[in-house]
Amino acid sequence: MNHNGESRIGESKIDFDYFYSIRPCLGERLSGDAVIVKQQDNLLAMAIIDALGHGNHAHEVASAARSYLQNWHSDVCETMVYLHQHLQDSLGAAVGLGILDLETNQLSYTGVGNTVIRILRQQNKIDVPRLYSTEGIVGGDIRQPKEQKIQLYRSDLVLFYTDGVKEHFDPQKYQGIFTDDVMTVAKNIVRLFGRNYDDATCIALKIGTISDD
Ligand SMILES: [Mn+2]
After folding, report:
1. Which of 10, 138, 169, 203 has the largest count of CB atoms under 10 Å?
2. How far is the CA of 24 from the centre of ligand 1 (A)?
């Protein structure tokens, strides 16, 4: 579950570092949440999946979604629609999909259901536009997915988490959120803000150095 990534493209260089932490619901051995982070050329795809319910059955649905997403498309909405079709005979899932262009540092996002994407930016407390998921259940009932784009900058912290983590947790309640490494951040968010009676999952992605030399 520990991954570090670095990408060098042409003359420019963008580093990123990520880690994800998945903790099953109290009393369950398997999680109904799943994560995939996969780089292909200059694109980094990230998905967070929260299958309906928890336990074994949810785990199977989440695993099916995860396997399917091994072959993601560069268009987030297209990927979401295909995944929706793939999960049609299942209980369904909430899914957040992000694709980061490592040349431009632009993040495309689409989400269905109650997974959360949150971007924390430290410098000057500049407000970062919020990205939203639309209502629905992937595999059940969805509207046409909407793509949202945001420009990321060095030291931005991108968090994806499932509803087992408090949606509006206060980052101020975690002092080291901007200074700790991504492994510590992902684990601490689950530990500090997770609910015991649901699967709780967090992906922490930190944008690193961008240089043209
Ligand atoms: Mn959940």
Report:
1. 138
2. 10
